[in-house]
Design a protein that fits this description.
Blueprint: H1 2-24, H2 31-41, E1 55-59, H3 64-82, E2 94-98, E3 101-105, E4 110-112, H4 113-123, H5 130-137, H6 142-163, E5 173-176, E6 181-183, H7 209-214
């Protein structure tokens, strides 16, 4: 009976691992695996200086304000570290190269909140919320992941407040595979808002019931 139970428990563990890996596919191909795959194919892959950079070229869009916003966020991040405040921001590179073009760094191992909820509904109907996804996917490190979520949520909430960021929705908020919140799209900051309507969003920052649910 003891051996049978051991085999049964191992089968359960294997199923759990397989399910967690299936959930992990929500974030797309892991950046380390992608790096290995592409380096093996590259004629320069043997060089010590070889690196994989994830960039997106944008045209028909003025990225000067986007670049300015990210410069400010980088400064916020520097101040948090300087003052030993455990708040987590994820600055990324934006380079304006003209009045209607530029280059943006792509943040890997992430999914938009919109995309996460959609994929859960389509492929994982047993999971109905972001909180349930955390509990299913981050089984062993749930507490650590929730702390990352909390500290990044707090950090971006301050940024939203100080920079008066508008047009916040689940399509421009990312969740990375480590549990960090990351905001995108800085088209409406300070005194700018969609259609010039300053009352478009009155909330100082984005704090939804779903986020509070994750925080318990």
């Amino acid at each position: 009976m003891g051996r049978d139970r051991d085999v049964e428990m191992k089968d359960v563990d294997k199923k759990s691992v397989a399910y967690i890996e299936k959930l992990g596919s929500i974030f797309g191909e892991r950046v380390d695996k992608m790096t290995e795959r592409l380096r093996a194919k590259s004629i320069f892959g043997g060089l010590k200086t070889w690196r994989l950079l994830h960039m997106m070229v944008k045209t028909g869009d003025n990225l000067k304000q986007e670049q300015f916003a990210l410069q400010l966020i980088t400064q916020f991040n520097y101040i948090f570290k300087l003052e030993s405040v455990k708040l987590l921001l994820t600055p990324y590179e934006v380079i304006s190269m003209g009045p209607d073009c530029g280059v943006m760094e792509m943040i890997r191992d992430t999914v938009t909140m919109d995309g996460l909820l959609k994929k859960l509904k389509e492929d994982h109907p047993r999971i109905h919320s972001i909180k349930e996804f955390f509990e299913a996917y981050y089984v062993e490190d749930l507490h650590k992941v929730k702390m990352r979520f909390t500290r990044s949520l707090a950090a971006y909430s301050l940024v939203m407040y100080f920079m008066q960021v508008k047009d916040r929705h689940n399509g421009n908020i990312l969740l990375d595979s480590q549990g960090h919140i990351i905001h995108l799209d800085w088209g409406f900051i300070f005194t700018s808002s969609p259609a010039g309507n300053m009352n478009f969003e009155k909330s100082p920052f984005k704090l939804t019931d779903e986020f509070v649910d994750v925080l318990n």
